[in-house]
Design goal:
The chain is built from 4 helices and no strands. Helix 1 packs across helix 2 and helix 1 crosses helix 4.
Length: 83
């Protein structure tokens, strides 16, 4: 399963919890209230466990967590450079 699909499924199943039935990869996760600051922390913990990658504090910024697309792009870049 590709990074984008894994992240999208986690957000929908664990963080959106009934607030949204579907999430487009370009939806503004914060602006639309799909996730909040606690959701970002849960997302970071999920990424660290699922992808075995430690997200540095300085990378936890709105630009990286704005959408599923932005997050998967960030993560794919980091995983490629660590590989």
């Amino acid at each position: 399963m590709e990074t984008q699909t894994i992240i999208q499924k986690f957000i929908l199943d664990e963080l959106a919890k009934g607030r949204k039935k579907t999430i487009d990869v370009n939806d503004d996760l914060l602006g639309e209230g799909i996730i909040d600051s606690l959701g970002i922390l849960q997302l970071v913990a999920f990424i660290e466990e699922k992808f075995n990658y430690t997200v540095p504090d300085e990378d936890v910024v709105i630009e990286n967590f704005m959408s599923v697309n932005a997050l998967s792009h960030y993560l794919n870049q980091k995983l490629a450079s660590n590989g």
